[in-house]
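quick one, 329 residues, struct below
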Amino acid sequence: MKILVNRNHPIPIRQQIRGAIEHEISFGRLPVGAALPSVRVLADQVGVAPMTISTIYAELKADGVIEGRGGAGTFVADSRLSAAGRMGEAAGIRSQIDRLIDQATELGLQAADLVALVNARIIHRLNAAGRARIVMVGLFDDATASYAERLAAQVGARAQVESVTIAALRADTDALAQVRGADLLVTFSNLHPELETLTQRADIISLRFIPSETTRMALAALDPMARVAVVSRFVEFLPILTLGVRRFAAHVQTFAVINMDDPDLQSVLADCDVIVLATGAEDAGRLARPDMLKIEYRHIPDPGDIDRLVMPLLTPAQPHAEQNTKEAS
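---
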């Protein structure tokens, strides 16, 4: 066993040495029964005091990772770490950890920052144990996260709610695998067919989405003489968007409805006082004049649908995998 330490690294030397031993065991390079160097040999190899190695070995023995055999030396014990080394999936776990480290490095995070993030996530997952896991699937990151927050507020402690975009599921097999294991999948009706194909699940729930209270109030407060531009990212959504805007701003007479990719967008905005932006069309707001009023046409999951379609499935909450096992039996 060859252990290298970086004396310029912010991680303490003792922690680096212990981590190196645990790494060799957990990924199968030191199998159960393998002999570890003596305290003095390892201390000389790494260039630390024998007391440092003695302390590390004592800690690993207390955790059941290694064991002493009266006069014969120190050996790898049969533990959860060594069991992970025997599993064929250990290499896959290591690859995922390496990708996580690379991503953290690209973000400028230090080792301590990454450890803190992982620990925080572990605590979050442990606290969520026993609760149903719901995944909200949408088109846009920010909007989908806001839908998940509203859903989480309504279901309360019965479930933890996560969010992911359909694009992420198309591109990331790991994310798709995580979503497949959720207790409930919730999405828009127009995304339902693709999500069903991706996840191979037939129990997906489609919710209706209604304009948020903030959106409704902003439209109702418009000046009757305002000239309003309604902008969507998707042409097929324009009729529905227009009906919604006219419903809550029925007192306004002048509307211009346009897709954000239309070459006439800037000239249309030049003649308007207000711009209403559908989710996903936020970039069109950059073309608006500084004095224009901007309204984001945001939706929320219909609370009635949540009560009717989601809440009954949360009592009692059964993990999806357990349900499948029962059905198969």
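Confidence is low (pLDDT under 50) at residues 317-329.
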